């Protein structure tokens, strides 16, 4: 009798009979995903309503309600991971800033842009130099998004240096945001700056794929280009430093970020030109050793050659490209006068001949 009672209790708890079939009205146990019983991307193995996943329990054993909505997707998981990583990094910087004394040095140089121009690859190339030590992570965004946190928080991201060592960070948003050049000039009067520029047509579409991969772009590429001017104008009515402005400027500036000359003009107005090195992404890909060597000389670092120049490409077009020949021609016509102005500004030949 005792054994039969245990068998019945076990079947009642699991919601299954001896054949493994769920009893009517029973709910499945959580597959995975933590204390609230929400699976991270894996649907329940069975459901009492065909075609629909079972609802989670109203309350977890801890007393809290589980999160609502669909199961966590890959996009949401990446967003959560990025947010947690940034939060941990910021918390460590706050901890170092709260200690007595100097929290850390200021950077010797910055990679300031542009976005989707190969700055992640360049970041890893520079970090591999034996006399370079990196900050706590890429894209600290102090001079753009987090300027209100103060310079001690910023310095808390950088390591203590031995004699002869240098440190840096890379935030591609710095090139584009209009408030950054003056802030940088006031805080880093002796620093040097590296800029990578890519064919603005290719950069715009790569930017679109990047934004869409995070689930932030519901429009097609053509519609997003049509909506860009209104989106940016509406978001920046209260100035470029609001949360709404940062969200739009970072995510929806597909064509605006490719107008490089106007961005460099803002930097040249605050920083002497001899402290800004500008290179083409295409040159870094075609001749990585030569382009890298030029940057090391500009930064005053000893010559160093990497065994492999790895390209860190994180965004690919998973389907049929939306960069149609018509859109390519449209963007090419839009960027033509801006490219000509860039060539005159830097003394370059036509940087991206059609």
Share of helix, binned: 40-55%
Number of strands: 5
Distance between the termini: 86 Å
Largest sheet: 5 strands, parallel
Low-confidence stretches: 8-72
* CATH classification class of the domain at 81-199 and 261-307 and 323-346: Alpha Beta
Radius of gyration, Cα only, in angstroms? 26 Å
Order of helices and strands: HHEHEHEHHEHHHHEHHH
- From the helix content, strand content and strand pairing, which structural class follows? alpha/beta
Quote the beta fraction: 5-15%
Which assembly state applies to the chains in this document? Answer: single chain
Which word captures the global form? globular
**Strand numbers in spatial order across the main sheet:** 2-3-1-4-5
Assign the CATH architecture of the domain at 81-199 and 261-307 and 323-346: 3-Layer(aba) Sandwich
Mean of pLDDT: 82
CATH superfamily of the domain at 81-199 and 261-307 and 323-346: P-loop containing nucleotide triphosphate hydrolases
What's the helix count?
13
């Amino acid at each position: 009798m005792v054994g039969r009672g245990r068998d019945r209790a076990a079947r009642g708890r699991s919601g299954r009979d001896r054949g493994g079939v769920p009893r009517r009205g029973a709910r499945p146990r959580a597959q995975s995903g933590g204390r609230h019983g929400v699976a991270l991307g894996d649907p329940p193995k069975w459901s009492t309503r065909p075609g629909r996943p079972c609802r989670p329990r109203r309350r977890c054993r801890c007393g809290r309600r589980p999160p609502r909505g669909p199961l966590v997707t890959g996009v949401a998981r990446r967003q959560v991971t990025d947010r947690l990583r940034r939060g941990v990094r910021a918390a460590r910087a706050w901890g170092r800033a709260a200690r007595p004394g100097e929290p850390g040095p200021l950077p010797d140089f910055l990679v300031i842009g542009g976005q989707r121009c190969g700055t992640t690859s360049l970041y890893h190339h520079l970090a591999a130099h034996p006399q370079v030590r990196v900050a706590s992570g890429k894209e600290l965004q102090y001079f753009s998004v987090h300027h209100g946190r103060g310079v001690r928080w910023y310095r808390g991201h950088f390591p203590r240096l031995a004699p002869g060592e240098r440190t840096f960070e890379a935030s591609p948003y710095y090139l584009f945001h209009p408030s950054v050049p003056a802030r940088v000039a006031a805080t880093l009067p002796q620093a040097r700056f590296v800029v990578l520029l890519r064919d603005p047509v290719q950069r715009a579409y790569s930017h679109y794929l990047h934004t869409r991969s995070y689930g932030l772009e519901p429009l097609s590429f053509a519609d997003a280009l049509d909506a860009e001017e209104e989106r940016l104008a509406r978001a920046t009515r209260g100035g470029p430093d609001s949360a709404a402005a940062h969200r739009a400027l970072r995510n929806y500036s597909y064509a605006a970020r490719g107008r490089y000359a106007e961005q460099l003009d803002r930097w040249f107005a605050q920083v002497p030109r001899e402290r800004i090195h500008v290179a083409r992404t295409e040159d870094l890909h075609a001749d990585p050793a030569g382009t890298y060597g030029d940057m090391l000389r500009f930064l005053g670092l000893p010559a160093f050659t990497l065994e492999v120049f790895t390209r860190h490409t994180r965004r690919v077009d998973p389907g049929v490209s939306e960069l149609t020949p018509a859109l390519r021609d449209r963007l090419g016509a839009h960027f033509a006068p801006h490219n000509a102005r860039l060539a005159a500004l830097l003394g370059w030949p036509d940087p991206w001949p059609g």
